């Protein structure tokens, strides 16, 4: 049993996935801290607010809502609220929807875990896949996550890495084993902008992803999740492309 855990998410402090995460954490730690965004912050990656102030409102014992990003929540938790008594683990999620492939770059759930890793705390992002947005199988993450987190903590991982765990859209008893996978190519082909006019005659815009089926490569997270397995992918900040580095090294000084 851990002494304390910090919980954050990107869907907001009132999101159902955060309530599931609190149930998971109750099986893992004696003391639970929640520092979560006041509102939905999906898609903000690991952004932090450097150019405007943020506010934190106490919602109960060791429970805070922050007017900022998941990254802001991590910084507030680790560098201010819990500075004297840091957690042994940071859990981010449980996200409504899987975080796979290139979309992990945009994910606030994964971004929060990466910020925790950067600040020196072992961090895991948890995401629950769904087919019907209105009927998310939260019971799968709730049932399987405590044992999976204990197993991963027992194995351990490097300090420069966070883990992203995705649960399949299946009942917990039908989910496959915990499977190690690589980040796949994902399904994002591009991005679209749709212009609309509000009731006052002003133009506003919706940004969205454009997707298509793609070859995911060997041992991909997407193929493993589609096969019904619980998937864990180790992620890091270093995005150096070794093939391009070797190509450029023949012409540029180092």
**Could you say which structural class the secondary elements and strand pairing correspond to?**
alpha/beta
| Total number of beta strands | 11
Number of helices: 6
Q: Estimate the mean pLDDT confidence.
A: 95
Q: What level of helicity do the residues show? A: 25-40%
How would you sum up this structure in a few lines?
The chain has 254 residues and is an alpha/beta fold. It is built from six helices and eleven strands. Helices cover 26% and strands 30% of the residues.
What would you say this structure looks like, in words?
Helix 2 runs parallel beside helix 3. It contains six helices and eleven strands. The chain is globular. It is an alpha/beta fold and 254 residues long. It has a single domain, classed as Survival protein SurE-like phosphatase/nucleotidase (Stationary-phase Survival Protein Sure Homolog, Chain: A, 3-Layer(aba) Sandwich). The chain has a nine-stranded mixed beta sheet, sandwiched between helices.
């Amino acid at each position: 049993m851990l002494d304390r855990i910090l919980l954050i998410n990107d869907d907001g402090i009132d999101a159902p996935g955060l309530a599931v995460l609190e149930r998971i954490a109750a099986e893992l730690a004696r003391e639970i801290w929640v520092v979560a965004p006041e509102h939905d912050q999906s898609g903000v990656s690991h952004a932090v607010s450097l150019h405007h102030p943020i506010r934190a409102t106490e919602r109960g014992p060791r429970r805070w809502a922050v007017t900022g990003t998941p990254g802001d929540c991590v910084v507030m938790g680790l560098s201010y609220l819990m500075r004297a008594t840091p957690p042994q683990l940071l859990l981010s999620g449980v996200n409504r929807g899987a975080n796979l492939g290139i979309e992990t770059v945009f994910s606030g759930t994964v971004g929060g875990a990466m910020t925790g890793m950067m600040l020196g705390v072992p961090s895991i992002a948890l995401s629950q896949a769904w087919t019907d947005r209105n009927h998310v199988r939260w019971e799968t993450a709730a049932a399987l996550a405590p044992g999976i987190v204990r197993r991963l903590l027992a194995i351990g991982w490097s300090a420069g890495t966070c883990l992203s765990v995705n649960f399949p859209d299946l009942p917990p008893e039908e989910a496959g084993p915990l499977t190690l996978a690589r980040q796949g190519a994902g399904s994002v082909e591009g991005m679209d902008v749709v212009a609309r006019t509000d009731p006052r005659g002003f133009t506003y815009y919706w940004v969205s992803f454009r997707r298509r089926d793609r070859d995911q490569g060997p041992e991909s997270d997407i193929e493993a999740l589609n096969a019904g397995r619980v998937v864990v992918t180790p992620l890091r900040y270093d995005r150096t492309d070794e093939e391009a580095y070797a190509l450029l090294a023949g012409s540029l000084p180092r």
